[in-house]
Design a protein that fits this description.
This is Proton gradient regulation 5. GO terms for molecular function: electron transfer activity. One of its GO terms (biological process) is photosynthetic electron transport in photosystem I. There is one protein chain. The longest helix is centred in the C-terminal third of the chain and has 26 residues. The protein is mainly alpha-helical. The chain starts with a strand and ends with a helix. Helix 2 packs across helix 3 and helix 3 crosses helix 4. It has a two-stranded antiparallel sheet. The chain has a domain of about 60 residues.
């Protein structure tokens, strides 16, 4: 029995091999068009994946609760800016280019996440 491929699918011996169903009935039971809507995208959440983890996380969480979220974020921003300045001065001292400096800042952020400073 010859099998051929057409625009509507396989024809020939394929239909009879599916549990005795007739091919025409099978084609009718399958919708010819399937509508796919635009995927629903959830709003991104700004949350640290390491929240509550790390050696310094408990201290950071307690400090945030005591100082208040707004004041805590101001202090954190100042600390991050100061640390970036230290890294920049270090890179100037050793003659590192801006790309290496950026890599060091990213490394400092990853280490801060692992230690719990960004909890």
């Amino acid at each position: 029995m010859a099998t051929s491929i057409s625009a509507t699918g396989f024809t020939g011996g394929f239909g009879s091999s599916i549990g005795g169903e007739d091919y025409a009935m099978l084609v009718k039971s399958v919708p010819s068009h399937v509508r796919v809507g635009k995927p629903v995208r959830l709003a991104p959440m700004m949350k640290n994946v390491n929240e509550g983890k790390g050696l310094f996380a408990p201290i950071v969480v307690i400090t945030r609760q005591v100082a208040g979220k707004k004041r805590f974020n101001q202090l954190r921003g100042k600390a991050i800016a100061l640390h970036s300045q230290v890294i920049t001065e270090f890179c100037r001292a050793i003659g590192a280019d801006p790309k290496q400096r950026q890599g060091l800042i990213r490394l400092a952020k990853k280490n801060g996440e692992r230690l719990g400073f960004l909890a």
